[in-house]
Design brief:
It catalyses: a myo-inositol phosphate + H2O = myo-inositol + phosphate. Its cofactor is Mg(2+). Belongs to the inositol monophosphatase superfamily. The protein is of the alpha+beta class and about 280 residues long. It folds into 2 domains: about 140 residues, 2-Layer Sandwich (Fructose-1,6-Bisphosphatase, Chain A, domain 1), CATH 3.30.540.10; about 110 residues, D-Maltodextrin-Binding Protein, domain 2 (3-Layer(aba) Sandwich), CATH 3.40.190. Helix content is about 35%, strand content about 25%. The protein is built from 8 helices and 14 strands. The strands form 3 sheets. Strands 3-4-5-6-7-8-9 form a 7-stranded mixed beta sheet, sandwiched between helices. Helix 6 runs parallel beside helix 7. The structure holds L-MYO-inositol-1-phosphate. L-MYO-inositol-1-phosphate binds next to strand 4.
């Protein structure tokens, strides 16, 4: 079995370097552009950090491939092949970055034969480096991570996101999902504004579940893997098998919690990331 530790170590180094660039830019004046909706933003720093990461990785591993949020926004196709592939979100939580709300992350997943081999999430304002390698567990700043193992939905703290969609169906589905969850009841519902950091809370046991409809593979590929390696369960929002291109994800402390949430939430239709 191939050992991708060299790539992981290189990924950890460049994720930290990228995080330093994000951190120094967060206090500065930003030029903000809109992408798919008034809540889907991009700045010069998103583009600069993605280029910095891709250039550094390509220089070291010239045959590897990339799926990057801003390259896709600029017209590249999302194509997950069997080749070693780095899936990059240079700033997960761009709206937070623009407002200086202190949860922003560099997210990097690495796949081979379409299977994730490692995931890295660097929450740079908090200086928290989350990572996991296949079969070797999940870590935060070098300390092992474990999901809570909670099985009782009524004792769960659940994380979700408002998302960038602003059409009526997406908004009514998102708000009614939160309403039905609160009525279950659960202990509470939270949203940090970055899917990557949200999901890492499930890996730490600080939250028991996370679900989201409408995010992209670069938002969640790394953190979904970190949850799995921390002993959590990752599925589609209806409890079926997770597909990182589907724009739906649930990550939870146990299968019982997945079931409890899947029974009350609904999804709205989203175009797959790998649709032509
Ligand atoms: C964002 C996510 C956030 C989600 C937004 C968006 P970006 O990623 O992490 O949690 O609600 O829809 O996808 O655009 O900041 O990389």
């Amino acid at each position: 079995m191939a050992d991708w530790s060299d790539c992981l170590n290189f990924g950890l180094t460049v994720a930290k370097q990228a995080g330093e660039v994000v951190l120094s830019a967060i206090q500065q004046q930003k030029e903000v552009k809109l992408k798919s909706s008034p809540a889907d933003l991009v700045t010069e720093t998103d583009e600069r950090v993605e280029k910095l990461l891709v250039d550094a990785i390509r220089n070291r591993y010239p045959l590897h491939r990339f799926i990057g949020e801003e390259s896709v926004a600029a017209g590249e196709r999302v194509e997950l092949s069997d080749a070693p592939t780095w899936i990059i979100d240079p700033i997960d939580g761009t709206v937070n970055f623009v407002h200086r709300f202190p949860f922003v992350a560099v997210s990097i997943a690495f796949t081979v034969n379409k299977q994730t081999e490692f995931g890295i999430v660097y929450s740079c304002v908090e200086d928290k480096l989350f990572y996991a390698q296949r079969g070797r567990g999940a870590f935060l700043n070098g300390e092992p991570l474990h999901a809570s193992g909670q099985e009782d939905i009524s004792r769960c703290l659940v994380v979700t996101e408002i998302g960038a969609e602003r059409d009526d169906l997406a908004l009514s589905t998102m708000t009614s999902n939160i309403f039905r969850l609160l009525k279950l009841p659960v202990h509470g519902v939270r949203a940090l504004g970055t899917a990557a950091v949200d999901m890492c809370q499930v890996a730490t046991g600080g939250a028991d579940a996370y679900y989201h409809i409408g995010m992209h593979c670069w938002d969640i590929a790394a953190s979904a893997f970190i949850v799995q390696e921390a002993g959590g369960v990752v599925t589609d929002t209806d409890g079926s098998a997770f597909d990182m291109m589907s724009r739906r994800v649930m990550a939870a402390s146990s299968s019982a919690v997945v079931l409890g949430i899947a029974q009350v939430i609904r999804a709205f239709p989203c175009r797959r990331d790998d649709d032509e």
